[in-house]
Design brief:
434 residues; alpha+beta; 2 domains; eight-stranded mixed β-sheet; disordered N terminus
């Protein structure tokens, strides 16, 4: 095929060459079907503004602090009748969540766990001030213990409890020496503690519900991405198999490159389709012929290399390739005899000639940017010369070279026929020998 030196729009050769140099390479062809380069359908992301993890922890800490301050203030005012008895603790607790978030709230890992341990110190101090054995103290202890359990596990629980005991010791001793004992039955404080417990776990349940919803959405997005990746891989495999032999397509898909390779004992089978009355086949009819060839040839170890016109070049790497080629030709001929009538041309019969040669060939991409795969070597040239010399042979025949005849285990049915320039052709009539 010859290429014109100008494009359809009349562009200069230098401009056309520049465009050709910008065409995708082999590696680019493989990445065309990569999931990141393809549009994919994902679940619509939520339009609701989501707080980051540190922001959520900060909000929970502020809520816990407000509840603890309310119980401490109510205990000092109503139950002890000493407003401001723990003013320093109230001020420290009120400022703590903001200072902690400012200093350590942006970090994760051990620094995040350090804040949770300090939470235990503050909570222990408040529990010691309210009363270690009181219902409000038990509520605060249960809440902080729950936080440690879900956030850090056993180690954080142990460190937090140690910090809480230090806090209890700081305020508990002072409460016993400097302030009257809180009455054992303080209905207002107990009611507030119950409300705090319910409100806190309601908020926690809300956070957990939203977090589980986010996990489900992420799982759906990951599944959608995986589905698109599988579809892209299947599409890439189909595209490669459409232009390359199966073995070459597999190497290109895995390695991203297809280096040339030498096959020392290749068996080349060239099938040339023809119609019994010399009609010119249509593209649809040729497509049907090539399509029925693939499964038959694959069963006998041959893979299609390329088609051009009515010819189909195939190759086998097996040592028994010549005998396998005869078996494949017989099966193909039997199929055509059983399905001789064409829908579009009822009186016509499809048939073929098969040309067989063997030898060492080199396989590779002769035009990488077009994924043009081809075979090179003297056996390929000899095969096409054999096809030219045997153009006058009848249909439904196999024409083999002398090299193939010496490798055949069964030469029954082959007839020696003189060819051009004194060459000998070995012809097998598939109908007569069946």
């Amino acid at each position: 095929m010859y290429y014109r030196h100008t494009t359809r729009s009349g562009a200069a050769p230098s401009q056309r060459d520049a465009r050709l140099r910008r065409r995708p390479t082999v590696g680019a062809f493989v990445t065309i079907f990569h999931p990141r380069t393809m549009s994919r359908t994902r679940p619509a992301p939520s339009t609701r503004q989501q707080l980051p993890r540190q922001g959520q922890l900060y909000a929970i800490r502020v809520l816990f602090t407000l509840m603890a301050l309310a119980m401490l203030a109510l205990g000092d005012t109503v139950c002890r009748s000493q407003p401001g008895a723990h003013l320093w603790l109230l001020l420290t607790t009120a400022a703590y969540p903001h200072v902690a978030h400012l200093l350590l709230g942006r970090f994760g890992g051990r620094r995040e766990q350090a804040i949770l341990v300090i939470d235990g110190l503050i909570a222990g101090a408040i529990v010691g001030a309210i009363g270690l054995l009181s219902a409000p103290g038990a509520v605060l202890a249960a809440i902080i213990l729950f936080n440690w359990t879900i956030m850090g596990g056993p180690l954080l629980v142990a460190m937090g409890m140690l910090a809480a005991l230090v806090g209890v010791a700081i305020t508990g001793v002072g409460a016993q020496t400097n302030a009257p004992v809180m009455p054992g039955d303080c209905a207002a404080l107990d009611a507030l503690a119950a409300c705090v417990l319910l409100a806190y776990f309601f908020v926690i349940a809300r956070f957990m519900f939203r977090y589980i919803g986010e996990l489900r959405q992420q799982q759906a997005e990951l599944q959608a991405t995986a589905d698109v990746a599988d579809s892209a891989r299947a599409l890439a495999d189909r595209a490669l198999l459409g232009v390359l032999p199966a073995s070459a397509a597999g190497i290109l898909a895995e390695q991203g490159d297809l280096p040339p390779s030498t096959i020392s004992n290749a068996t080349l089978l060239l099938i040339e389709f023809a119609w019994s009355r010399g009609e010119s086949p249509t593209v649809t009819e040729l497509a049907e012929c090539f399509q029925l060839c693939d499964p038959i040839l694959n069963r006998h170890g041959f893979e299609g290399i390329k088609t051009f016109g009515r010819r189909f070049l195939t190759m086998s790497r097996a040592m028994t390739g010549p005998d396998d080629a005869i078996k494949a030709a017989r099966e193909l001929n039997d199929y055509l005899l059983d399905h001789s009538a064409l829908v579009s041309m009822p009186a016509a019969r499809r048939s073929f000639r098969a040309f067989l040669h063997c030898g060492a060939v080199t396989a590779g991409l002769v035009q990488p940017e077009r994924l043009n795969f081809d075979l090179l070597g003297e056996p390929v040239e000899a095969l096409f010369s054999l096809a030219s010399m045997a153009a006058a042979q009848p249909l439904a025949t196999v024409i083999a070279s002398s090299t193939v005849r010496h490798r055949l285990q069964n030469v029954a049915g082959f007839v020696t026929t003189p060819g051009e320039a004194g060459a000998e052709l070995y012809v097998l009539d598939l109908v007569a020998s069946s």
